[in-house]
Amino acid sequence: MSPPVEIRREELTSATAQGLIRALNAELTARYPEEGATYFRLDPEEVAEGRGAFLVAWSDERPAACGAIRSLDPETGEIKRMYVEPSARGQGLGRAVLQALEEEARRLGLVRLVLETGMRQHTAIALYQRAGFARIPPFGDYAKSPLSVCLAKEL
Asked: I need a labelling partner for 147 at 20 to 30 A (CA). Which of 36, 71, 118, 135 fits?
């Protein structure tokens, strides 16, 4: 049986958030060594109250997963920085974080979510598709990236 999970907001600059982000960045850099293949930028003001959120899933009293949402415009939010620690994978934490981010998007008045993931992240793509996301043309910073898979969902 999986330990109970608590999802809560975390400051992007906190040690907890930074530790998860460092682990995510290291994994993405190893998976996508090509020049310019990774997009790590997320600024603290983009996830400030009223504009977005950075959420952490705590399992067994340790940070095990994270994700963020930032408003792109008054109707659209972007899911960013989704990550589950390798030892915690397969326990539904990614799904739980994604659901919490969707709730946050609705609270912010957003009606559409978009995201980018990499073509080598088959598990992530499957998670998003099971949650109702569908492929869209690459957008924004990802428009010219041959390794990007972009998805969207109407809320």
From this structure: 71
